[in-house]
Amino acid sequence: MKWISTWGEHLGRRFAIIGHDVPCKGDFSLNDLAGGAGRLDVLLRAVNTALFVSHGIREDTQIILHLGGSGSRRIRFDGGKLRGVHPDERSIAGHVRAVVRSPIPPIGVWSEHSSGICHSGGGLAQTLDEWMQEGCQILVMDAEGSPLREGIEQTECFVLSDHKPFNEDEMSLLSRFGKVSIGSQWLQGHACIAIVHHILDGI
Amino acid sequence: MKWISTWGEHLGRRFAIIGHDVPCKGDFSLNDLAGGAGRLDVLLRAVNTALFVSHGIREDTQIILHLGGSGSRRIRFDGGKLRGVHPDERSIAGHVRAVVRSPIPPIGVWSEHSSGICHSGGGLAQTLDEWMQEGCQILVMDAEGSPLREGIEQTECFVLSDHKPFNEDEMSLLSRFGKVSIGSQWLQGHACIAIVHHILDGI
Lengths: 203, 203
Prior knowledge:
The structure is a homodimer.
Chain A: E1 3-4, E2 10-11, E3 13-23, H1 40-51, E4 52-53, E5 56-57, E6 61-69, E7 73-78, H2 89-100, E8 111-114, E9 117-121, H3 124-133, E10 137-147, E11 156-160, H4 168-174, E12 178-181, H5 189-201
Parallel strand pairs in A: 3-6, 3-11, 10-11, 10-12
Antiparallel strand pairs in A: 1-2, 4-5, 6-7, 7-9, 8-9
């Protein structure tokens, strides 16, 4: 599915999710994703739901994982280029682990690790800076925000947290952006993403 | 969250998902859920999204997995009674494997395996019979069906398939029930469930 703005630009959707305790370097066991890997499972389901439809991929969607355990690293999955990634948690985790075992690139330098998977140093602040430079509209998922409307006018970027709420530093970085809600109940991250896609698809 | 009908009945939501190739007996590896376990990963994400919200469980929701590989067995997860199940695929799979290793109960006999997890012989036909006897409204998820409306008047039961479409026998069983759609695109099962919850929550 491709979205074209009224000005003919090629639009897309982007998600940023914070993994507060997911190790950004070293190693972790694929058998303990919800434990030793710092609830990486939450991020893996977000990747799945952001990018995969039944028997296909949302080519216009990207998701950036922010790994905050023992430092910081970002991993970006780009639906338009992704190859060889299966939708189950363990498969996606294998790709994350391969990245985490490699050196962290400098902040702001996106290094391709495999087709459709890039990584970079830095954290949420860098992602927000990059998105603003690209002219994206940034929205923060918050159960107490304004209802998310249908339709899409420019590249829309959604920021959400993992099983932990945003910390004070993140709240400060995000305070300048609008908060949008998809209901009064706090849902799992991947469920939020499914509903955002549903609302923006508008079909 | 509890829903009460205008007649004061205690209402709930139910999902049935078919796992055409998931082994109903024997054993499988927790390291190969998307392969040797016949795409059990699809069903595990459905369990997760049907039952878990952020830091909580939907107590009024049940989901029945229909394991169709090498015979037939049903496994029911009941949000109102579930204990000790974590939301990641591997954790849920561990519970499914424990059930699959045990003898299949007779058709129609629901045997509790652990808190909130029961199993029974039989397949989709038995589930539909049981639901009809309880007076539930049964709806089939189909991208070409009628748009799912908001609100809930009685226990609503949704039937969906895994990565494979319903087969001819299933289509025949389901032909008498209404088809509902949440959009023209075929989504993953767990994404459908997230959107159904969102629409029925109506908030």
